[in-house]
Write a structure and sequence with these properties.
The protein has helices at about 10-25, 35-45, 60-70, 85-95, 105-125, 130-140, 140-155, 160-165, 170-180, 200-215, and strands spanning about 5, 25-30, 50, 75-80, 100, 185-190, 195. By secondary structure, the chain is of the alpha/beta class. It has two domains: about 5-125, 3-Layer(aba) Sandwich (Rossmann fold); about 130-215, Orthogonal Bundle (Arc Repressor Mutant, subunit A). The strands form two sheets. A five-stranded parallel beta sheet has the order 2-1-3-4-5, with helices on both faces. Strand 3 (about 50), helix 3 and strand 4 (about 75-80) form a beta-alpha-beta unit. The chain is elongated.
Length: about 220
Amino acid sequence: MKKILIVDDDKELRAHLADILGGAGYEVDAAASGPEAIERAIDTDFDLVLLDLMMPKMSGVDVLQELRKVAPRARIIMLTAFATVENAVDVIKRGASDYLMKPFKIDDLLVRIRRVIEEAGFDSCSVKGDLDGILGSLSNSIRRRIIQILSTRKTIRLMELARELQVEDHTKVIFHLKILREAGMVEQDKGRSYSLTKDGERTMNCLKILENHLTPNQ
């Protein structure tokens, strides 16, 4: 469950957004001021922060800069009733992921939240090595299935893997394993068991993100 922090001095708006986002399946926390938001972000690993630009004591821009230090992984969407092109450009340059003008439509907010969180997921699943080789290795359904099986089983020997794949010709499985090994996603230990490398694990995360991204909302 993704965690979202709402930062706004408007108590009614905080409660309204908390109800909506909670109903949308997010874990929600709220803060009424910049210092409170920074304290919450230090204690909790938030995926996204909805941050009001205009607040007393500490402006949204100042909070944004501090959040980039204490919670660099969190994505930030700025909210404001006083939108200008200059403000939008400034907060994006300072590290915000998006900018939304009040009053906004809830459907628009939910779409933006989903997009920003998905983009964060894509950024986190980067892999090292030959990108063409990695993409080529994923173009085959058997190789994708091998990665999925290894992600679940952690280690597996050739015969067990062939049975799970329901492939009778073991040479085909060996061929696909060879391609995955050359791409740096699969390795074999001294006991001849196969497992995912670190890049293989990151690739599996990418596959999950792609599947979620391409699957239409129910």
